[in-house]
Design a protein that fits this description.
Blueprint (H helix, E strand, L loop, with lengths): L10 E6 L2 E6 L6 E2 L4 E10 L2 E7 L10 E4 L6 H13 L2 E16 L5 E14 L9 E7 L10 H17 L1
Parallel strand pairs: 4-8
Antiparallel strand pairs: 1-2, 2-3, 4-5, 4-6, 5-9, 7-8
């Protein structure tokens, strides 16, 4: 953003609440807070393993858990169930909160993100039918071979694996 949407003056960096933010140079009161966007990440477990999907916008060979934007007024739990149905055609049997991670950086596509990733584990059964608008491939990873990776979603997978291990001990 370069201009104030309220009065059209230039935006300039100002320290507000100990953070550098863009604010109206004419002091009309506008501040661009740049709050994170809430996104739900879903670790979908089936009897065959955990589903990792390939988004059409990603480089070949890159797979991850199911993700989706939280809709206005939607509870994150409901978003996880909805995304599982929309993206994979699977009906959730059990839903558990895993944790959350901050994703503040560059994504696979090169876009810059400021997101709060809210993680869930869903156990689902049925036949996978991919949402062809976003996804073009998937793979099933047996639980004993699943590992996290270096990203917010990968750290959520690690959290879930640790939670499973703690419950078994």
């Amino acid at each position: 953003m370069q201009y104030c949407p309220q009065c059209r003056s230039d935006l300039e960096p100002k320290t507000i609440d100990e953070f550098q933010r863009l604010a109206c140079s004419a002091d009309c009161g506008y501040v661009f807070w740049n709050n994170p966007t809430p996104v739900v990440a879903v670790i979908v477990e089936t009897p065959q393993g955990v589903v990792l999907a390939h988004n059409k916008a990603w480089p070949a060979g890159r797979f991850s858990v199911i993700t989706g934007f939280l809709e206005r007024g939607e509870h994150p739990h409901d978003c996880a169930v909805r995304e599982t149905a929309e993206e994979l055609g699977l009906k959730a049997q059990k839903v558990n909160f895993v944790g959350f991670e901050v994703f503040d950086g560059q994504g696979i596509s090169g876009a810059v993100f400021n997101q709060l990733i809210i993680g869930f584990h869903i156990y689902a059964e049925g036949s996978i039918v991919l949402d062809q608008q976003e996804l073009d491939d998937y793979k099933l990873i047996p639980l004993e071979k699943l590992q996290g990776w270096q990203s917010a979603t990968g750290r959520l997978v690690e959290q879930w694996l640790q939670q499973r291990a703690d419950q078994r001990s």
